[in-house]
């Protein structure tokens, strides 16, 4: 069972006693956040970005009340949203710190357990106030702001499912062939690699074109990439 850590303290105590983990791939920003919040009395830890697993483990060790989590964490960790559920399960309140304005993506973070979103362009004073609110268990976003972002996430997910539906009708072999076409392979090469005749591969290609509603292999590949389909 997840236990959320809520801190009770008067305004005069600022962030005294609040443990904050900063998960941010820009070292200068992370250090600025650390210095500013430490000046307010917070116990701040900057998490090393070696892997998603290490991010979760570092948060578990520090046991933060609040985690400031960047949405884009670079090559080693990738999408910050992916670690939200595990960090939240440890009892922390996650606040996304991001430069992204993609409402659907931000709404997805809220659906995964984040309590709020703060643009990186905001002043440090505003950010610290939001950390204070999160530590107290108060809202970081208004109910309407939260609803708008979550609804946009759901709308985008429904749209994506609709666009991917034709790909769900492909057989396993057709998916394999389309994947090879996306790699730039020709029918002859696919035939050789899959140990089937060229005629068989062409039959699969025709079925793919029909199911996707396109007229050429190039169009099929472009459509797959456009909807971010992966074999």
Description:
The chain contains eleven helices and five strands; from the N terminus they run βαβαβααβαβαααααα. 55% of the residues lie in helices and 10% in strands. By secondary structure, the chain is an alpha/beta fold. The chain has helices at residues 27-39, 52-62, 74-77, 84-89, 103-112, 124-136, 143-168, 172-182, 187-194, 198-212, 217-226, and strands at 19-23, 43-46, 66-70, 93-98, 116-119. It has two domains: 11-153, Response regulator (Rossmann fold, 3-Layer(aba) Sandwich), CATH 3.40.50.2300; 169-226, Arc Repressor Mutant, subunit A (Orthogonal Bundle), CATH 1.10.10.10. It has a five-stranded parallel beta sheet with strand order 2-1-3-4-5, with helices on both faces.
Beta-strand level of the residues, as a percent range? 5-15%
For the sheet with most strands, the description reads: 5 strands, parallel
Shape: elongated
Number of strands: 5
Ends: how far apart? 37 Å
Low-confidence stretches: none
On the 0 to 100 scale, the average pLDDT is: 90
Q: CATH topology of the largest domain, anyone? A: Rossmann fold
CATH architecture of the largest domain: 3-Layer(aba) Sandwich
CATH class of the largest domain equals: Alpha Beta
Secondary-structure content class? alpha/beta
**Spatial strand order of the main sheet:** 2-1-3-4-5
Can you lay out the helices and strands and say which pair or pack?
Layout: E1 19-23, H1 27-39, E2 43-46, H2 52-62, E3 66-70, H3 74-77, H4 84-89, E4 93-98, H5 103-112, E5 116-119, H6 124-136, H7 143-168, H8 172-182, H9 187-194, H10 198-212, H11 217-226
Parallel strand pairs: 1-2, 1-3, 3-4, 4-5
Helix pairs in contact: 5-7, 8-10, 9-10, 10-11
């Amino acid at each position: 069972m997840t236990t959320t850590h809520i801190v009770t303290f008067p305004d005069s105590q600022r962030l005294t006693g609040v443990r904050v983990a900063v998960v941010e791939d820009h070292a200068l920003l992370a250090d600025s956040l650390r210095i500013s919040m430490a000046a307010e009395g917070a116990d701040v830890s900057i998490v090393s970005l070696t892997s998603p697993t290490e991010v979760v483990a570092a948060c578990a060790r520090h046991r933060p009340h609040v985690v400031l989590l960047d949405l884009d964490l670079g090559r080693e960790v990738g999408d910050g949203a992916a670690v939200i559920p595990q960090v939240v399960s440890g009892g922390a309140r996650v606040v996304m710190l991001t430069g992204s304005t993609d409402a659907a993506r931000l709404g997805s973070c809220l659906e995964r357990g984040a309590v709020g979103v703060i643009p990186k362009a905001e002043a440090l004073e505003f950010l610290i106030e939001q950390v204070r609110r999160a530590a107290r268990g108060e809202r970081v976003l208004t109910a309407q702001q939260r609803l708008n972002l979550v609804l946009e996430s759901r709308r985008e997910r429904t749209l994506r499912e609709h666009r991917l539906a034709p790909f769900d009708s492909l057989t396993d072999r057709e998916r394999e062939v389309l994947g090879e076409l996306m790699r730039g392979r020709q029918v002859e090469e696919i035939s050789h690699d899959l140990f089937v005749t060229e005629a068989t591969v062409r039959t699969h290609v025709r079925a793919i074109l029909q199911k996707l509603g396109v007229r050429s292999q190039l169009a099929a590949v472009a459509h797959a990439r456009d909807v971010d389909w992966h074999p």
